[in-house]
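User: Last request for today: this protein with pyridoxal-5'-phosphate, please.
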Amino acid sequence: MKLPNKLTKLKAYDPITGSYSVRLDANESYFDLPTVMKAKLADQLEQIDFNRYPDPIATETIEAFASYYQVSPDCVTAGNGSDEIITLILNCFMEKGAKLVTVSPDFSMYGVYASLSEIEVITVPKKDNLQIDTSALIAACKNADAVVFSNPCNPTSLGLARTDVIRLIEAVPDCLVIVDEAYMDFWDESVLDLVNKYENLIVLRTCSKAIGLAAARMGFAVADTYKTNLLRAAKSPYNCDAISQKICATVLNEHSLLQHCRDEIIVQTQRLYTSLSELCARYPDILDTVYPTRTNFVFVKTSYAKEIFEQLLQAGISVRCFPNGLRICAGTRREHTLLLQELERILQPN
Ligand SMILES: *Cc1c(COP(=O)(O)O)cnc(C)c1O
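Assistant: Here's the final one, the structure of the complex with pyridoxal-5'-phosphate:
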């Protein structure tokens, strides 16, 4: 049997597996839930009717999300991670053969989902400083049906100012602008409040990063009610299971816990940035640039990414390796100490 080329050409997403004592590769929160919260969640699980299908809309979770982020629950669609939401949006709003603009470097899954949906991808390269070239992006979007990018960006950690995002949205009213704000909890240039102002805007959010619930798989699309109702109608009815819905609703209602964790992560990320910058200043022949970060990770440009990555793995420390650099997620003080000790050992001339 002949299988479609769009399928057979795929390579599986290759997350780092195996057990490493220091995990800084997946941009997760380094805070697990407090024990009292876990006990509270265990109690709530007892109330679930496990023989029944879950709420198709995830009403309680969406209400908790809407109250934390100050949006209307009628503008929110819940999905099995924002990964599912991205596929859903592409399938709903784009026809086969339509044109989707992406930027490079950016989150690699956009291109994968687009090609499975038989959508043509047009990639706009970023500037040498890894910032988005807004004018070039606008020019590309004039002839396209949609554009998607992460802001702040994974993997560069850089952000595009809200004024530039608005300039893009206003310049291309016929192009759907999908802004993936997976890391926007760590910055304050969101366009979440504009989903009712612009018909061509959809914002994505996730529980996997600042909220600290990567295990629960819950992501959200925020858009005007017209598009929200279309997305809700098109999604598979029971895409979010009852357990995840309950867990995410409970945690999203813990505003002060969430804000505390977010603030701590921002402090730790800035510490990591400072330490890596110092290392970069001492080993300029090996480490090119450390980028100022708007996320919970730091991107280090280096031609020796693969070598450093492999030596760190051998020492039980996992980071994410890219062709031109390393993406290192913020961790605890102890994890940073271990990472920096090991980097020091690797970089030292013998
Ligand atoms: C981590 C991440 C997501 C989140 O994906 P989930 O499926 O919600 O876990 C989305 N977009 C970007 C850019 C990310 O880095």
